[in-house]
Write a structure and sequence with these properties.
about 30% strand; globular; alpha/beta; 9 strands; Rossmann fold; about 30% helix; seven-stranded mixed β-sheet
Length: about 200
């Protein structure tokens, strides 16, 4: 998140519920800041139905964490770890509060996500990755390209992408296979698997 406002307007309490698992029905808070748009419950329920065979024991990466709901829903449902990337200070503070409240195995990194993914050959590739940036910043295609090019993904990784339903410029790496593709209101959400490159 790049837009800064005075804390008084940002800290108005909002919350979203974890749907299922260890922390079922627990509410997590998030600040009211531009571009922070937690994935809605209906879309989240569909997404985690898709991920049910794969989430247990997975190492997850939430590239634009925002509220952290995708990370926390993953951990609630049995993911081994989740790493949340976020650059907005107030969102980071709230993520830390939610981690402490739930005693979650959540690694929070204060960083620009594109800069983070520009690093090559990470020590730990990820099994499930969530890409849900602010819609007005056109980050989806670039993010996907960096994940693939710089070896952030395990050989069997699944990648979730959320973007505006009318977005026409999005492109995934050529070795990614579109497994699921749905539209709900003004949101298009997709799940990709990947074919390991021969290189």
């Amino acid at each position: 998140m790049s837009i800064k406002q005075k804390p008084n307007s940002q800290m108005a309490g909002q919350s979203v519920k974890i749907i299922a698992g260890l922390w079922r029905s627990r509410k997590i808070n998030f600040p009211a800041i531009p571009g922070l748009r937690p994935t809605g419950a209906r879309i989240r329920e569909t997404l985690f139905n898709w991920l049910t065979p794969h989430i247990e024991g997975a190492n997850c990466l939430d590239v634009y964490a925002g509220s952290g709901i995708l990370s926390l829903e993953s951990l609630s449902r049995g993911a081994k770890t989740s790493t949340a990337l976020e650059s907005e200070r107030i969102a980071l503070d709230t993520l830390q509060e939610n981690r402490a409240k739930l005693h979650a195995n959540l690694t929070i990194i204060a960083v620009n996500s594109i800069d983070f993914l520009a690093k090559k050959n990470p020590a730990q590739p990820f099994d499930v990755v969530f890409i849900d940036p602010p819609f007005n910043q056109d980050l989806q295609s670039r993010t996907c390209a960096l994940l693939e090019a710089n070896h952030w993904l395990s050989s069997t990784a699944l990648v979730y992408c959320e973007l505006p339903s009318k977005e026409v410029h999005f492109s995934a790496p050529p070795n990614w296979v579109l497994k699921k593709n749905k539209v709900a209101g003004n949101v298009r959400f997709m799940l990709y698997s990947r074919i390991e490159s021969a290189n």
